[in-house]
């Protein structure tokens, strides 16, 4: 028995190997083998735990899993695939020498507000200098296929603009709700403008918006890469940061972060103080779309004469289980034509850092998605998570389409929402 | 290294022969019991590759196991003697509906549910509806002669096959049957191959029969205080001149499990519940429904529930679908059987199950397609408890004995495979099994195709434990 896999091993017995997960799994479809299916992976974890296969044998199949969790929505026996996958990743992480780049990325870079701001500023410089337009023609290769993303990043705010942002936004009239806004690291560095839209939409909906200063990365990328300890550390920091004030909601605009934060209680042992605090935190975490629907404080005043399609975040769909609110908001925008995807639940291939570390496989998944997107004839592809947003931008560029990818909140701002309060 | 591996790789596209440990383990199981490592997995892209592989296999004496989506509940695709797993699920998908002929020609890799979806575009339907139809391939359904709830009214897979193209065990391509409803030319090899569980041929194309899609459906749920009354009500319904499209049964243990799993308000105090679906023209359904309602009242049914909307009806069928996951919460390992008895014998079979359950001290629940006598007794146990698994093995054997004594059969729709092979003689007698063996020997002289299935080896016993 491989000791580290004890937790996952017990969970594998819930799998009856019926195969109902196969049609839901993007990598089963693109990589065309049981080895890259949920049931195949679960079986491999079991075989490794029993000592029949080695940790190396499961490395490739586990690392090629997108972690989109589509399989969990069709599983008739509710196998805890997410837990099995994370446990397997922990074992893989322990067995590997972590490279300097990777440990810098996970330990210092992503969780750090300072580094994330620097990323935003660096991108701004990169764009101002014009280097982004020639990145894919540079004679040298950038690490992690970053050249592919260089030309698709949104226009960055200047450092001065970044510094201008407040940490508390009050309304002139009394607030209906008090919201703690979770800015997220990628959202805040790369999609700063979308965060501004989010704050604005909340204000117009009748909320007071606070950005707690001690908030940090949600830890999703760490948890999904088997770095549980770091994930716990980040969770604790966030829980404490949002205890400083009494919030009605803790609002995020990134499906991946939301999914991680509603799952904080699972990081702590039941009955402990931290578990209790995590439950209190998670029960208030909501996606921006949910809160906008619930508060119902916006009246869209401008027609948006466009056809759009909506690419939901997998973690928002399968973990947070938020499906209808974004569609409901889109249907309220006057003039907007919504053409839904045939398979919205099929991952776009972004999947955290998957499109960086498993680039080719990610592009195969993206190709399937783009076929569906093209069929809708949409002018804009609306998403609700920064990873998906970047990936859709990349997909549009690869297909040579005229369309654009936007975050839901930015599209809603286009319709000039007026406050009903 | 196997001496056949190099020539095998030579006759296929690169990357289509899988031999990594991870791959071998991933094709070592299906949805039944047992774990058997193949030596290679090949993923074919056309029928000529299938023919080449079988020729090669005969030359080197390597066993070949055809496989679809691996949803089999009887061990059909398990590579029990090593050798080559032949993955047919990656053949290009092809569904050609011929609405004027009411037929459809398909490649074996197509999912069964997709055939029906395609047929519906023309107002037609492909009737067989195994509950795995959205996952399983038609190739697997043909090999196993799969059933499903609608089998009651429309029959099972074999009743819908007009013709096949197959590769023989020695690697020759042949066609059987054709495209017509009537066809008596020669022996009916089509029917011989359908349900032969991959032991006689590899199916590479099939022409299937379509029928008009019924314009409307109606559902009703009836609860009973006694299992026996439920059984009698089923018999009365079936002899009343009305033939429902589905007639499903759930015992109390299943109802309780569903309510604990996902409460939807089923009567947990009922001894048994039956779910009836009628299909046909709206006008006819009204009359039929009244008739069945009258029968149920006469049989002193505890409750008769007629859903007022399609959504409510869907909720009841959803409850039926929840039985499998719900009972898995009782204990993790599910030994799902499909012994089938003449319809009038369902109450007797239920009594026998009760006795077996008590004798071996096991959790046994029963649900299934009561309208055609095809019940699914399920033993809920834990694979990690060797003693319990041993008791489960003995209980399964007694279930088979009971079914056969009542004039029934070992398997209604899951197939014999590895698990039921030891019991074949019990039902067919030694001469009966020997006649089948002789057919196998003539078709497959080198015993290449799917060895270890249907026919038991000397001293073979049912084993539910993985060592």
Automatic annotation (TrEMBL), chain A:
PROSITE patterns: 4FE4S_FER_1, 4FE4S_FER_2. The keyword Transcription does not apply. Its EC number is 1.1.99.14. Signal peptide: none annotated. InterPro entries: 4Fe4S_Fe-S-bd, 4Fe4S_Fe_S_CS, Cys_rich_dom, Glc_ox_4Fe-4S, Helical_ferredxn. The keyword Transport applies. Binds 2 [4Fe-4S] clusters. It catalyses: (R)-lactate + A = pyruvate + AH2; glycolate + A = glyoxylate + AH2. Residues 5-36, 55-79 form the 4Fe-4S ferredoxin-type domain. Its cofactor is [4Fe-4S] cluster. SUPFAM superfamilies: alpha-helical ferredoxin. Keywords: 4Fe-4S, Electron transport, Iron, Iron-sulfur, Metal-binding, Repeat, Transport. One of its GO terms (molecular function) is 4 iron, 4 sulfur cluster binding. It holds the Pfam family CCG. Gene3D superfamilies: Alpha-helical ferredoxin (1.10.1060.10). Component of a complex that catalyzes the oxidation of glycolate to glyoxylate. This is Glycolate oxidase iron-sulfur subunit. It comes from Halobacillus salinus.
Automatic annotation (TrEMBL), chain B:
Keywords: FAD, Flavoprotein, Oxidoreductase. Residues 34-213 form the FAD-binding PCMH-type domain. One of its GO terms (molecular function) is oxidoreductase activity. Pfam families: FAD-oxidase_C, FAD_binding_4. It comes from the Bacteria. Transmembrane segments: none annotated. Its cofactor is FAD. Belongs to the FAD-binding oxidoreductase/transferase type 4 family. This is FAD-binding protein. It comes from Halobacillus salinus.
């Amino acid at each position: 028995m491989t000791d580290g896999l004890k937790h996952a091993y017990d969970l594998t017995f819930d799998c009856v190997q019926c195969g109902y997960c196969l049609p839901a799994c993007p990598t089963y479809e693109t990589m065309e083998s049981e080895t890259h299916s949920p049931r195949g992976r679960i079986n491999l974890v079991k075989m490794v735990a029993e000592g029949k296969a080695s940790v190396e044998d499961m490395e490739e199949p586990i690392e090629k899993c997108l972690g989109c969790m589509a399989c969990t929505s069709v599983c008739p026996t509710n196998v805890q695939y997410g837990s099995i996958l994370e446990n397997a990743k922990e074992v893989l992480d322990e067995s590997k020498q972590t490279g300097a780049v990777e440990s810098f990325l996970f330990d210092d870079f992503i969780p750090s507000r300072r580094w994330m701001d620097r990323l935003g500023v660096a991108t701004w410089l990169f764009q101002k200098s014009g280097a982004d337009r020639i990145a894919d023609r540079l004679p040298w290769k950038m690490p992690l296929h970053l050249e592919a993303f260089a030309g698709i990043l949104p226009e960055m705010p200047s450092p001065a603009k970044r510094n201008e942002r407040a940490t508390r936004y009050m309304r002139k009239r009394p607030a209906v709700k008090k919201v703690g806004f979770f800015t997220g690291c990628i959202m805040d560095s790369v999609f700063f403008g979308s965060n501004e839209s989010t704050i604005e939409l909340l204000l117009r909906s009748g909320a007071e918006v606070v950005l707690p200063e001690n908030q940090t990365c949600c830890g999703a990328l760490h948890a999904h890469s088997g770095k549980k300890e770091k994930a716990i550390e980040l969770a604790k920091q966030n829980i404490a940061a949002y205890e400083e004030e009494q919030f009605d909601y803790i609002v995020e605009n990134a499906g991946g972060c939301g999914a991680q934060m509603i799952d904080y209680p699972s990081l702590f042992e039941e009955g402990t103080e931290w578990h209790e605090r995590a439950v209190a935190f998670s029960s208030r975490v909501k996606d921006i779309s949910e809160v906008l629907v619930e508060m119902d404080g916006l009246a869209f005043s401008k027609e948006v004469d466009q056809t759009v399609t909506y690419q939901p975040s997998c973690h928002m769909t399968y973990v947070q289980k938020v499906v209808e609110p974004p569609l409901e908001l889109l249907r309220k925008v006057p003039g907007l034509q919504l053409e839904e995807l045939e398979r919205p639940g099929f991952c776009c291939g972004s999947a955290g850092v998957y499109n960086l570390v498993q680039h080719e496989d990610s592009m195969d998944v993206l190709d399937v998605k783009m076929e569906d997107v093209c069929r809708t004839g949409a002018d804009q592809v609306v998403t609700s998570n920064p990873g998906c947003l970047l990936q859709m931008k990349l997909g549009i560029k690869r297909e040579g389409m005229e369309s654009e990818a936007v975050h839901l909140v930015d599209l809603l701002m286009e319709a000039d929402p007026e406050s009903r309060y | 290294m196997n001496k056949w591996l190099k020539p095998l790789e030579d006759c296929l596209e690169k990357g289509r022969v899988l031999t990594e440990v991870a791959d071998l383990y991933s094709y070592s199981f299906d949805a039944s019991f047992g774990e058997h490592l193949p030596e290679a997995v090949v993923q074919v892209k056309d029928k000529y590759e299938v023919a080449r592989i079988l020729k090669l296999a005969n030359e080197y004496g390597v066993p070949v196991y055809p496989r679809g989506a691996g949803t089999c509940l009887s061990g059909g695709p398990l590579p029990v003697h090593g050798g080559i797993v032949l993955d047919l699920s990656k053949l290009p998908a092809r569904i050609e509906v011929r609405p004027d002929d009411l037929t459809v020609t398909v490649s074996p890799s197509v999912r069964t549910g997709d055939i029906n979806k395609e047929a519906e575009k023309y107002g037609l339907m492909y009737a067989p509806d195994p509950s795995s139809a959205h996952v399983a391939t038609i190739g697997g359904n043909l090999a196993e002669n799969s059933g499903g709830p609608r089998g009651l009214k429309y029959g099972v897979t074999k009743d819908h096959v007009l013709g096949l193209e197959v590769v023989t065990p020695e690697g020759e391509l042949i066609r059987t049957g054709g495209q017509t409803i009537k066809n008596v030319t020669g022996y009916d090899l089509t029917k011989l191959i359908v349900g032969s569980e991959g032991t006689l041929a590899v199916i590479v194309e099939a022409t299937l029969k379509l029928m008009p899609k019924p314009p409307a459906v109606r559902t009703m749920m009836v609860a009973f205080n006694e299992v026996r009354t439920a059984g009698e009500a089923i018999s009365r319904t079936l002899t009343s001149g009305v033939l429902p499209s589905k007639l499903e049964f759930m015992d109390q243990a299943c109802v309780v499990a569903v309510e604990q799993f996902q409460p939807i308000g089923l009567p947990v105090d009922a001894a048994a519940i039956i779910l009836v679906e009628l299909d046909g023209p709206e006008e006819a359904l009204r009359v039929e429904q009244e008739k069945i309602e009258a029968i149920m009242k006469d049989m002193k049914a505890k409750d008769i529930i007629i859903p007022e909307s399609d959504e409510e009806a869907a909720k009841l069928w959803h409850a039926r679908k929840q039985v499998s996951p719900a009972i898995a919460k009782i204990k993790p390992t599910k030994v799902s059987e499909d012994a089938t008895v003449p319809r009038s014998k369902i109450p007797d079979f239920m009594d026998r199950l009760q006795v077996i359950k008590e004798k071996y001290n096991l959790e046994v629940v029963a649900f299934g397609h009561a309208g055609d006598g095809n019940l699914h007794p399920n033993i809920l146990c834990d694979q990690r408890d060797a003693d319990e698994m041993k008791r489960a093995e003995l209980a399964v054997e007694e279930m088979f004995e009971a079914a056969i004594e009542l004039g029934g059969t070992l398997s209604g729709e899951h197939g014999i495979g590895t698990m039921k092979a030891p019991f074949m003689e019990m039902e067919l007698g030694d001469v009966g099994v020997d006649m089948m063996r002789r057919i196998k020997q003539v078709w497959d002289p080198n015993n290449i195709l799917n060895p270890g299935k249907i026919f038991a080896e000397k001293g073979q016993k049912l084993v539910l434990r993985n060592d």
